[in-house]
Structure formats: C-alpha cells, structure tokens
Amino acid sequence: xxxxxxxxALEDFYHHLNETSIDRTIFSARFGDxxxxxxxxxxxxxxxxxxxxxxxxxxxQIAPNEQIMEYIKRDLLFQLILNNKIEQGIEIPDSxxxxxxxxxNSFDIIRECxxxxxxxxxxxxxxxxxxVGVTVLAETIIKQYQKFKGYEKEINxxxxxxxxxxxxKFNNEVGGIYELDPISWLxxxxxxxxKGKTSVLIIEDLDRIDPAHLFRILNIFSAHIDxxxxxxxxxxxxxxxxxxxxxxxxxxxxxxxIFVMDAEATKAIYEKFYGNYNYQGYISKFISxxxxxxxxxxxxxxxxxxxxxxxxxxxxxxxxxxxxxERINLELSVRDVVRVLDGFPxxxxxxxxxxxxxxxxxxxxxxxxxxxxxxxxxVKRQQVSQIIKRIARRKNILYFLxxxxxxxxxxxxxxxxxxxxxxxxxxxxxKDNRKQYVQNIIxxxxxxxxxxxxxxxxxxxxxxxxxxYVN
Length: 471
What we know:
alpha/beta, 5-stranded parallel beta sheet, 5-stranded mixed beta sheet, 20 helices
C-alpha cells in the first residue's frame, strides 16, 4: 500500500469519526478493497488522539451466544493488560465482587480469564505477559473474597438474599445484557478512566463471517449498545466526573465504535434471509449519522496504469486494450493492484544478457518489466504472446523488444533484423563494464532486404528468452 496515497481518505474519515454527534459508524468497503490496511494507517496516523481496541468476531462465529460476550471481555482485558491500561492494585467494588462470589463459590479467576483462546494473542511472549497481568489481578480480587467468607452463612440465612439472588442472577448471567461481573466492571473503568484520548472500539472483518452467523453476532453487539434498566448502583469516573454505570452509552463506555464491513454485501445477505423487510431500520442501529463509504479502486487503477507506462514505456491504454481483447479480467481490487506494485523490483532479475562476447546487455528491460506485471496479474504464458502481438498491431514494438530481438545472426549482419517483412538496424550505446543498452531502431530501405534474409524475428522465441528473467 506504500505505492497508493490514501492521505485524503484518512483525513476524510478522521473528520467523520471526530464529529461530536457520532458515537458509532460503519466503515464500508468491498472485500479486498484495502479496509484492513486503511485502518492500520489510520491507527498509526491518529494514535495520539485515539486509544484503539480491536475485536475480530470472525473468531467467535461458532460459539454460542452466551459465550461470545465472554470472548469479547477476554480480548478486551488482554488488550488492556498488554497496553498497561489497568491500574496496579485496583479494587473491585464490594457489591460487585460479593455478588459474583455468591454465584461462583468455586471461583478461579486465572482459569476464568485464560480458558478462552483469545483472538489477539499470537506469541508466547504476549501470552506470558497477559498471564502475569491476570495473575496480579486475580490476587487483588481473591483478597477481597477472603473477607466475605466470615459472614457468608449470615447472609444465606437472611431473607434479603432472595432479592439479592434475583438481581444477581441477571448481573452474573454469562453473556447476558445485564451482566456486570468484576471483569466487565474493570474493563469499563479502565476504558472510561483514560484521559486525553478518545477510546475507539473497532469491530473488524464482519464481511468474513459466515452469513448464517452474521446477524446473530451483530444482534449481540446491538444488545450491548442499547441497554436500559440495568438497575446498577455502581458509579464510574468519566472525564473526571462520577456517573452511574447505567449512563454509559454502551456496555464498556467506548466513545466511538466502528463496524467494519461491506454494507452493500451485508444488505444483500439481509434481504436473502429476511426479504425486503426494513433493512434501513435494522442497519441504523449501528450508525449515528451515515455509513462512511470507502473505495480507492479508481486511485489504485490509475496508479497501476502509471506504473505500467513508466516501466514498459508503452502507453497503458494500449496495454489495457490488448488485455481486454484477450479477455483478461480487469475488474481489479486494491489488493490485486497492491500485489503488482509492492516489491515490484523483486519480480524480475537484473542480470547479463549475452548475445556475443562483445554484446552484453542488462536484462531489466521494458519487455521484462511488462512480463513481470502480467505475471503478477495472473496472465498465463499462452496468453502473453497474443497480448504482445495485439500491442504490436497498434505500435512498432521493436524498441520495446530491445536486446532480446538480437541474436548472433543479426549481429553478423551488422545488427540488422527483419520485422514484419521490413529491415531495421538496432543501434546501441555502451555503458560502464561493457554493458550496453538499445539506443535506437532505424528503418532501412529495401536494398538491405538481402542482408536481413532468414533473420525474421520470432515473437515467441523472444518472449521465451525474456521470461527467464521474470521471477
């Protein structure tokens, strides 16, 4: 993506997200259109203004509903630990810890926190770092639990426990919308305590989820945004002020939530499952104002055409017309373009091309570079010959073929070749170390036909020689 400038698109999305009235939005782009790379650059560019947290629900799609929120909590907790966002020695409010204690007498905080395989831990060092953080957190919570044991029996005999059990049943229900256990409280407190930066939750790769599970998972996220009647007496600090945890705009108090998907594809899936029934009403749950549409396909294609013209020294429209005539698919995604542009010098070799002892050229010619482009576009060998011949109908390609049009016979004949029944002389200039490059192609008069007999160039043979230098 280094070859495609997306600065303006990054700035446009920043202004969209930064609007005060927007607390949730959909970042929409087609699959393969560079969503992940865009967000990577966005995070880097605005890391001093935002604290980013990322979830990958494609990893949750086979889990039952009640476990999905547990996966989410663990992934967020681990990101908080890895980024040193959890205060040392933090104390969970007694009412939350005690309520959970009553419902989880065999509670094992380390087991609970580590039993799900989180999507973001990719290395053993990260796993060890998280395990240390969770262990410290567990020690804090366990100390609080010790003081509950002394009067547990007294509480059990009290009629008030029935009411506590009723509310606690919902507050501790795994994956429930009213759930508020120590981990949920800790995540919300750590996120809302952040000073100077805006917390942003990015929910990635929604268009990679199996369509059968997509709306089930979206509905879970929606339920934890539209929350009412939590009946919690807990307060939390946000922007330096205490407020009820019930007042948070979503379960964990994120200031902004970004859903990453292809909105058009999601609409098509929705209509396949539910018909034309009120898609706009459904999708409006996930946006505050509007969907942010992103596409740099046209920019990417323009950059590809510039690249082809620069490397092959042939007008890109001529090449694209030849590709279309050969029925090569030119509906390219950004990913397809990036595959061509990234590390392009590694797609061919710069080596000696020896015609005779005195005729040495370098292989990084316009022909070899165009063949490297075609290779990265997935063009097959048998199609290459036809494409070059189609290009030849539009323009004289002798200069483009360069040194590969020469052989020992043509050198003996004073560098003369025969192309399409007409004689030409190739002139060249010597560089350092005896390396040479083609300088000009000079048309000759008919009197030279006898000199050039039997050396009509063979396009297929030339391509075979040039392809040896394409990786």
